[in-house]
Specification:
With 696 residues, the protein is α+β, with helices and mostly antiparallel strands. The chain has six domains: 3-62, Helix hairpin bin (Helix Hairpins); 74-313, 2-Layer Sandwich (D-amino Acid Aminotransferase, Chain A, domain 1); 319-393, OB fold (Dihydrolipoamide Acetyltransferase, E2P), CATH 2.40.50.140; 432-501, DNA polymerase, domain 1; 506-586, DNA polymerase, domain 1; 589-693, Rossmann fold (3-Layer(aba) Sandwich). Helix content is 39%, strand content 17%. The radius of gyration is 28 Å and the shape is globular. It binds 2-(butylsulfanyl)adenosine.
Length: 696
């Protein structure tokens, strides 16, 4: 390639790679497979090798992709957090071994072979045997502080056991999501019409960065650790160091093997390339490390990788099959999802006939045609996805699909909001698929928990008995006996179940309403923040944004929902039916330690600012954004705003630390007789108190 051409291609590759890096690291929603990404990177590396004058420091070959998020505090890494050189070719593993041997002047050494866990990198610091801090990789130099979240990952010890651990050390590893937890999460997301995560790795990194730490605990994340760093560590080999870490209670994989030759490495790789399919979590390769720590030191690092380790990546399992047609499915919130019908093909043990195409943008990116041969990948997802098109097999009779401009069910013109990837049918109250979807959602287990299959709802709808959720509560036995196959017993059970649903707490009722973007957690958080439906309906955009985890998109969706007359009427009907539209006093409050207090917060805390605001509310206090004579105290974390401090001082407003704040809350949780016993609370409240306090 000529110099000029190389320059153009390099610029093109850098742009494409940056875009895919952003989707991968920041959005957790890649549109190409890892293999395709790695191939783009390799092409860029080889062009830069050929034309070294075209290498620039900001090239993606020279730096680690960044996943820094402004919602977290950042801390510098004590030792840079690098990535690994990777290959799909066994001969390159041999080349790595040869390079290492040459670098070590022919001295004998061994290898530690490990699985390459497919998750998101984490760096834990332990001080005096206690978990001190958890940082993400970030940009390799600075990472996001996710300590509060990591404390909710069950296999990460807060305190080490055994003996012999250094006073301070770092241990790095991977946070991953086992397939079972991933399937559960994606099933929930699909039901709530949240976009499903593309694979367990994206689900793990998205979950690790949740704003509400206690929510992280529900995601089923796990951790595996594979690299210890510190000053004067008392180990001579990497495997010895990891064995010691395991004896301190740290999660270290038992799938490691010490190898003496490249033949043994190959054996390890081939074994796990097959056996990985039986593991309950995703692995995307093997990592081969020089085992002796003094040799690791001798070989050192390049700007991006250690010279003492390499990753061999397994190829993702995929199948090639023909795209027969595309269905456009309407969800309960009106979102339209294109689903591909495929010529049946065997993939990782199951026959695949349908695959998701996500949205119109994804269809354009793939430039897909009906009749094309397409690559389908599973990688643990419930619905397989189409990752690419085999252009060499494209024939002239393939047809470019046309994304519909009208709802395939009710024919209404579709709309697409700015910045939205999905098209929507706006006929929320008249589109039969949406209506039935909303009814199914309303009754589902996590909402009103009324047992009814889709077929029952279909019948109730087609007989004209139920059009909106409140109609369920007007049903009488004779209505239900009109359903095919229904007898006295089934009708009574259904009516009992509806009666029981009137006890479902406000947060779940709010979730049952099916407001777009208001999932289970958001609904709970809104319920806790506003206390009852009237406060919520009266809230303006600004006060909605003050609630934990509510961003602009959710706030606008809530405002839109409550501005409609039919929503208001429906809530009145549901209120009359006897559903819970306010929080139980016991549920809303942890203590009244802050009752009557107006608190302003400033600076950074050991947990997120949203979490502090949430705690203020849970303990009866009120948040305010600016210091005034009405402020009870200014809660100052590290690096508080100088203006706020000045104002507080000039008005004589007390400034208190996070530690003092915690002790005020803790005193509110003590029994009034001073025995230090906790106040008797409902189980649910006690669970929340426990969760909230473990944050500190
Ligand atoms: S060792 C200096 N060992 O894969 C780098 N990394 O694609 C030390 N990974 O950055 C990393 N399993 O996040 C190492 N057994 C393992 C691993 C592993 C997964 C991740 C890690 C790394 C990335 C490179």
């Amino acid at each position: 390639m000529e110099h000029k051409q190389a320059e153009i291609r390099i610029a093109e590759l850098r742009k494409t790679i940056s875009e895919h890096s952003r989707r991968y690291y920041e959005e957790n929603a890649p549109v190409i497979s890892d293999y395709e990404f790695d191939m783009l990177m390799k092409e860029l590396e080889s062009l830069e090798r050929e034309y070294p004058d075209l290498v620039t420091p900001d090239s993606p070959t020279q730096k680690v992709g960044s996943d820094i998020r402004k919602e977290f505090e950042q801390y510098p890494h004590k030792y840079p957090m690098l990535s690994l050189g990777n290959t799909y070719d066994i001969s390159e593993v041999e080349a790595f071994a040869e390079r290492a041997s040459k670098g070590l002047g022919g001295k004998p050494f061994t290898y530690s072979c490990e699985l390459k866990f497919d998750g998101t990198a984490i760096c834990l610091t332990y001080r005096e045997g206690k978990l001190f801090r958890a940082l993400t990789r970030g940009d390799g130099t600075v990472g996001d502080d996710v300590t509060a979240n990591v404390r909710h990952i069950s296999n990460i010890p807060q305190t080490l056991k055994g003996s012999g651990w250094p006073g301070e050390f770092e241990i790095r590893g991977e946070i991953y999501m086992p397939y079972e937890a991933f399937d559960r999460l994606n099933a929930e997301r699909l039901r709530d019409e949240d976009p499903p995560f593309a694979n367990p790795r994206n689900a793990a990194s998205g979950s690790l960065k949740l704003i509400n730490p206690s929510e992280v605990g529900h995601r089923g994340l796990e951790c595996t650790l594979y690299h210890i760093l510190g000053e004067n560590l008392p180990f001579s080999t990497h495997s010895e160091a990891l064995d010691a870490a395991a004896s301190w209670g740290l999660p270290v994989s038992d799938k490691r093997r010490t190898c003496k030759s490249t033949e043994e490495i190959e054996e390890y790789i081939n074994y796990w390339d097959t056996e990985r399919k039986t593991l309950p979590f995703a692995t995307d390769g093997a990592v081969i490390k020089i085992n002796e720590l003094n040799f690791q030191k001798e070989l050192g690092y390049t700007a991006k990788f250690p010279r003492w380790a390499v990753a061999y990546k397994f190829k993702a399992e995929h199948a090639l099959t023909k795209l027969l047609s595309i269905d456009y499915q309407v969800g309960r919130t009106g979102a339209i999802t294109p689903v591909a019908n495929l010529e049946p093909v065997l993939l990782s043990g199951t026959v695949v006939k349908r695959a998701s195409l996500h949205n119109a943008e994804q269809m354009d990116l793939l430039d897909i045609r009906i009749g094309d041969y397409v690559y389908v990948e599973k990688g643990g997802e419930i619905i397989p996805k189409i990752t690419g098109v085999e252009l060499d097999r494209r024939t002239s009779d393939t047809e470019k699909p046309v994304f519909p401009d009208r709802c395939p069910d009710c024919g209404t013109l579709l709309v697409k909001d700015e910045g939205e990837a999905k098209s929507f049918c706006p006929n929320t109250t008249g589109c039969p698929t949406q209506i039935k979807g909303k009814l199914v959602h309303f009754l589902c287990r996590k909402a009103m928990n009324v047992i009814a299959g889709d077929a029952t709802i279909e019948q109730l709808f087609s007989l004209g008995l139920v059009r909106r959720p409140s109609d369920f509560y007007a049903l009488v036995k004779s209505d239900l006996l009109r359903l095919e196959g229904w007898k006295d017993r089934s009708a009574e059970r259904f009516l009992d179940s509806l009666e029981e649903s009137k006890k479902v707490p406000f947060g779940r009722v709010l979730f049952a309403l099916g407001i777009r973007y208001v999932g289970e957690t958001t609904a709970k958080s809104l319920a806790a923040h506003f206390g009852n439906i009237d406060n919520l309906m009266a809230a303006d955009r600004e006060s909605l944004l003050e609630a934990a985890d509510i961003g602009e998109v959710i706030a606008d969706s809530i405002l839109r929902y409550f501005s409609s007359d039919s929503s208001k009427e429906e809530i009145e009907r549901l209120k009359k039916a006897g559903l819970q539209f306010s929080m139980d006093a016991k549920e809303t409050q942890m203590s009244d330690a802050l009752s009557g207090m107006t608190i302003v917060i400033s600076g950074n805390f050991s947990v997120s600012r949203d979490e502090i605001k949430h705690l203020i509310q849970l303990n009866g206090g009120k948040n305010s954004s600016s210091v005034s004579s009405r402020t009870t105290f200014l809660l100052a974390g590290s690096k508080p705003g100088p203006e706020k401090i000045k104002k507080a001082e000039s008005l004589g407003v007390e400034i208190i630390s996070e530690e003092r704040f915690r002790s005020i809350i803790a005193s509110g949780l003590e029994h009034p007789d001073g025995t230090g016993q906790e106040l008797p609370e409902s189980t649910e409240t006690q669970e929340r108190i426990h969760k909230d306090l473990t944050l500190f």
